[in-house]
Amino acid sequence: MRQGIFWMLVVAVAMAANNAAEEGKKHFETYCKACHRIGGGRLVGPDLKGVHKKYEEAWLIKWIKSSQSLIKAGDERAVKLFEENNKAVMPDTPLEEEQIKAILAYIAQASEQSQASSASVQTTQATAVVQEESSIDPAIARSMLSGIKITLGVLLFTALIAVAVAYFGLRQLP
Ligand code: HEC
């Protein structure tokens, strides 16, 4: 039973984080997308991939609310950023702190996703190298790969079962 509660918590936390990112995505598309991408290079403003790690959250909230106020107050990083971008003005947003936090959660999630896809490209390239190296029998390489795939499949399946158990366990509670 304890374990059930643990899994319910895991699922609840994951769902909450995901909801924040979902809400953040909406705001991002409304207020930021015209000027910023997350991975894929700069638009009007810099690429925001990984920007949640570059500054602390409190600074980002102030910047996103009103970058010009920070610049006028003489904040060193803000002034530098402004000058490096040819003094292009990022407009103020009417967003609440919670909404900005949701956008930051979405930026964090989207940054990781673009990292994950480049990692999978690397895996594919590594696979190609393994298959090209004549010292390794391609048949053995293939069977190793299918072994890895099966292991991953089993892990994913187990995780799904755990989620299902937590979910239905939750519904059966009074
Ligand atoms: C009209 C275009 C525009 C819009 C809309 C816009 N930005 Fe910006 N943003 C910029 C520019 C230009 C900069 C570079 C700094 C400057 O010139 O003031 C910037 C800089 C930033 C930075 C610092 C990036 C770094 O690498 O240091 C963050 C974070 C940021 N914007 C987040 C956002 C978010 C979040 C939104 C949506 C709520 C948003 N911006 C909407 C133009 C925009």
The overall number of domains is 1
CATH architecture annotation: Orthogonal Bundle
- Helical content band: over 70%
Tell me the fraction of residues in β-strands, as a range. under 5%
**Over all CA atoms, what is the radius of gyration?**
22 Å
Oligomer: single chain
Average the pLDDT over all residues and give the rounded result.
84
Strand segment count: 0
The CA-CA distance between the termini, in Å, is 14 Å
CATH topology: Cytochrome Bc1 Complex, Chain D, domain 2
Q: Kindly name the structural category.
A: mainly alpha
How large is the count of helical segments?
7
CATH homologous group name: Cytochrome c-like domain
Shape: flat
Spell out the helices and strands N to C: HHHHHHH
Overview of this protein structure:
- This protein has 174 residues and is mostly helical.
- The chain has one domain: Cytochrome Bc1 Complex, Chain D, domain 2 (Orthogonal Bundle).
- It has 7 helices and no strands.
- It is flat and about 60 Å long.
- The structure holds heme C (HEC).
- Heme C is lined by residues 31-32, 34-36, 44-46, 48, 51, 60, 63-64, 67, 81-82, 85, 88, 90-91, 93, 103.
What's this, in brief?
The chain has seven helices and no strands. By secondary structure, the protein is mainly α. The radius of gyration is 22 Å and the shape is flat.
Q: What characteristics describe this protein?
A:
binds heme C, 174 residues, 7 helices, mainly alpha, single chain, Cytochrome Bc1 Complex, Chain D, domain 2
